[in-house]
Design a protein that fits this description.
It is an enzyme of class 6 (ligase). The chain is α/β, with parallel strands linked by helices and 317 residues long. It is built from nine helices and nine strands. α6 crosses α7 and α8 runs antiparallel to α9.
Amino acid sequence: MANKELQIITGKDEMRQWSRSARAQGKTIGLVPTMGYLHEGHLSLIQESKQHSDLTVVSIYVNPGQFSPSEDLSTYPSDFNGDVNKLKNIAGGVDVVFHPKNLYDYGRRDDLTDAGKKMKIDDLEEGKVVSCVENGGMGHETWIRVERLEKGLCGSSRPVFFRGVATIVTKLFNIVEPDVAVFGKKDYQQWRIIQRMVRDLDFGIKIIGAELVRDTDGLAKSSRNVRLSPQEREKALSISESLFKAKTAAEKGRLVCRDLKDSVIRTIHEAGGKVDYAEIVDQESLEALEEIKSPAVFCVAAWFGNVRLVDNMEIDV
């Protein structure tokens, strides 16, 4: 059976109109938010969405709000045409790709200085993604914070990251108006933050955490993996290999977190990586544990070359 026709929508009002029309017909809508450069991990999220909804929307938007001014937004990989082709080949098809140009452009420039006006207008004319965390970022000043869960782990080294994630996800929820949204557990902290935000703000949306997808060699699938050299990729396998060993050790009764963390950190360092963090935390609260006595998750972020990789493994003992 041929796949359904894929519709590409770029405007907020058009996206809202499509969703409301679908809902008026009794259809349920699933949303898979992405920043593009799709891989098998993303495609697994889409298949999960299709299990829980009649129609599926995939958003492709590189969110400037989660990058600090010191992070180079332009290096994030992008291949929109390739992404669309992958989505067209998904069994059963995808209904809509929501691909907005700039969700932080509100059409106002009178609140910028003359220099800021020129910079933003020039950037837009050249098709650049404008970072809204810079001074005068198109007047956007409303942010969503999940105050406790965003601290620690990735939040320690990227202080504006989860503010930007929670805000853009809220914007997407308000535009697409889905019944279900799917997030990958690879970004474990992000998934838990979105869950908590939806609970606290009474969004009528079911949040589903889809299992982490790995390559055959064990490396967690990520859009950033393409930036690894062959040698760096080989060394990066130390992350998943050490996590699997720690999980096995915990299941055999080694439950002191310091010992497990030291083992993982040592393995990554010996492989030439630089550890950002290696923490064992409670699966729900994300609070650091000294000993595993309840469902836990071992979260790791490490640099190989100039590529920061994240991985995690749930431990249920």
